[in-house]
């Protein structure tokens, strides 16, 4: 059993606070809570504080709802918390952080994939037309 | 017997609000909004026009609204409970009536009349490198508990990579998602469609509709204004001012008519019901709001008070001048002693009430009811 104290990280040997997503929801229906927790804790286990939420499935208005408690995020970042990659990406999209480089890379990859798909489709159509 | 009935009404109201499936309780709770200052609006001539939130205007409007205890404490639909009876001395009964008057004054606090809000179209960033990243937009809401709703950051990242501020409708919807208010739905209920509104108006249920509207919409939204306009137009056409008298919407109704200079119907209605004081207050309000009109200028010249004010108004502005003059003549000839006292200062709305706690916009935090 790791000995934990909420305020003095010295006793929690080698651990640090992270801002990450804890998965909840139901089967085929994920829902993430954005949470400040010790990194050794289980993903969905006891957290220090909930800082927001993220719903990855779009609603009827085609929106993915994300809530951030910027005040507390600033506090935990000031305490030395590390955000994980998906949280950093979301914060970059929100404009709170600078844009994450992987977001840009992913966008480029998707565009390339979409281009090759459309090219393949048009080639198939040409072949069918020639036949 | 009458005293017993009034006392029963008092205690029913002073008790805690009961739970009920439909919005009656939420409407009751949520339907209280504080009054606040609106932006000053000088006319082109440099003369300061009277605004809705001015102390004098509010005084006149509260006086015209009247304080019919029976009407204000009409039983709201709640769970059935047997009534409680209390045995009181005369002095205690008077005290209870006083307390009831104060409570009624609070219940009769008028909802805000503010100019319609301008649409938001502020773009924070145009990152076209992000295009094609996702098919859905991301909406980021700041859920810090202590920020007022008007100052909350709600931004939208479109699939094209554009980062923009959310529109007013999106803002209202998302604030309702994260900070739900009782009685308010995410999408406007079908009662606010035109046809359903007409049905409600035909049944004289304006007060219900307007209370529901208060809970559902923000006071400066287009829907709020539309519902109020429709309700007031219907009342003006049918001349059914009694429907809203002694409710909290009478003030806004009077303001609506006065700003559009259509005071005749209301004035004739008041004279028919022998409310001379109210009629005088109405004309005084008209002069305050339109200080450049003939009526106001003449009144200032002649320093008119009482029936003379009404005569000047009948000459200058109204189209039903014949009727008003007739009514005034009957008052004069009947020789009744009309005591035209100066308006007493009411403890209702003072400058303190107009101060707010948050926001440079001066609009209060709607979470605090």
From TrEMBL, chain A:
Location in or out of the cell: Mitochondrion
Transmembrane stretches, start-end: none
Chain spans, region Disordered: 108-131
InterPro entries in alphabetical order: Ribosomal_bS16 (IPR000307), Ribosomal_bS16_dom_sf (IPR023803)
Keywords in alphabetical order: Mitochondrion, Ribonucleoprotein, Ribosomal protein
UniProt keyword Ion transport, yes or no: no
Tagged with keyword Ribosomal protein: yes
Main location: mitochondrion
Taxonomy, superkingdom: Eukaryota
Gene Ontology CC terms, in alphabetical order: mitochondrial inner membrane; mitochondrial small ribosomal subunit
Family recorded in the similarity comment: Belongs to the bacterial ribosomal protein bS16 family.
HAMAP family noted in UniProt: Ribosomal_bS16
Protein name in UniProt: Small ribosomal subunit protein bS16m
Phylogenetic placement of the source organism: Eukaryota, Metazoa, Chordata, Craniata, Vertebrata
UniProtKB/TrEMBL annotation, chain B:
Gene Ontology cellular-component terms listed: mitochondrial small ribosomal subunit
Organism domain of life: Eukaryota
Pfam families: MRP-S22 (PF10245)
GO terms assigned for molecular function: structural constituent of ribosome
InterPro entries referenced in this protein's UniProt entry, alphabetically: Ribosomal_mS22
Protein's UniProt name: 28S ribosomal protein S22, mitochondrial
Organism: Electrophorus voltai
């Amino acid at each position: 059993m790791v000995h934990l104290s909420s305020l003095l990280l010295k006793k929690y040997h080698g651990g640090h606070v992270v801002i990450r997503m804890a998965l909840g929801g139901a089967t085929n229906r994920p829902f993430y809570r954005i949470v400040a927790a010790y990194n050794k804790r289980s993903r969905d286990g006891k957290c220090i504080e909930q800082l927001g939420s993220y719903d990855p499935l779009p609603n009827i208005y085609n929106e993915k709802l994300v809530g951030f408690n910027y005040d507390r995020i600033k506090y935990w970042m000031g305490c030395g918390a590390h955000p994980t990659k998906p949280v950093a990406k979301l914060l970059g999209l929100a404009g709170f952080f600078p844009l994450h480089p992987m977001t840009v890379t992913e966008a480029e990859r998707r565009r390339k994939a979409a281009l090759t798909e459309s090219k393949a489709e048009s080639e198939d159509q040409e072949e069918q037309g020639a036949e | 017997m009458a005293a017993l009935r009034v006392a029963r009404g008092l205690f029913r109201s002073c008790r805690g609000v009961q739970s009920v499936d439909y919005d009656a309780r939420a409407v009751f709770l949520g339907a209280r909004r504080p009054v606040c200052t609106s932006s000053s609006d000088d006319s082109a001539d440099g003369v300061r026009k009277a605004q809705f939130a001015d102390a004098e205007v509010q005084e006149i409007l509260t006086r015209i609204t009247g304080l019919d205890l029976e009407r204000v404490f009409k039983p709201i639909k709640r769970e059935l409970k047997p009534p409680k009876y209390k045995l009181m001395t005369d002095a205690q009964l008077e005290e209870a009536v006083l307390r009831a008057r104060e409570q009624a004054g609070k219940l009769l606090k008028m909802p805000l009349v503010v100019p319609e809000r301008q649409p938001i179209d502020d773009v924070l960033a145009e990152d076209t490198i992000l295009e094609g990243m996702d098919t859905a937009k991301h909406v980021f809401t700041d859920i810090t508990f202590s920020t007022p709703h008007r100052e909350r950051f709600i931004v939208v990242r479109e699939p094209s990579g554009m980062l923009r501020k959310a529109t007013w409708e999106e803002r209202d919807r998302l604030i309702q998602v994260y900070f739900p208010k009782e009685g308010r739905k995410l999408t406007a209920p079908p009662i606010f469609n035109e046809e359903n509104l007409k049905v409600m108006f035909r049944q004289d249920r304006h007060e219900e509709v307007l209370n529901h509207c208060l809970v559902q919409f923000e006071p400066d939204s287009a829907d709020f204004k539309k519902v109020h306009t429709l309700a007031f137009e219907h009342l003006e056409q049918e001349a059914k001012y009694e429907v809203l008298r002694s409710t909290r919407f009478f003030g806004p109704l009077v303001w609506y008519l006065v700003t559009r200079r259509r005071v005749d119907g209301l004035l004739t209605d008041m004279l028919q019901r022998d409310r001379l004081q109210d009629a005088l207050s109405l004309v005084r309000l008209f002069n305050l709001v339109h200080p450049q009109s003939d009526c106001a200028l003449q009144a200032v010249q002649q320093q008119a008070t009482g029936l003379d004010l009404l005569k000047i108004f009948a000459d200058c502005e109204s189209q039903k001048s014949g009727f008003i003059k007739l009514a005034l003549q009957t008052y004069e000839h009947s020789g009744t002693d009309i005591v035209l006292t100066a308006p007493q200062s009411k403890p209702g709305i003072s400058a303190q009430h107009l101060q707010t706690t948050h926001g440079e916009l001066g609009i209060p935090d709607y979470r605090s009811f």
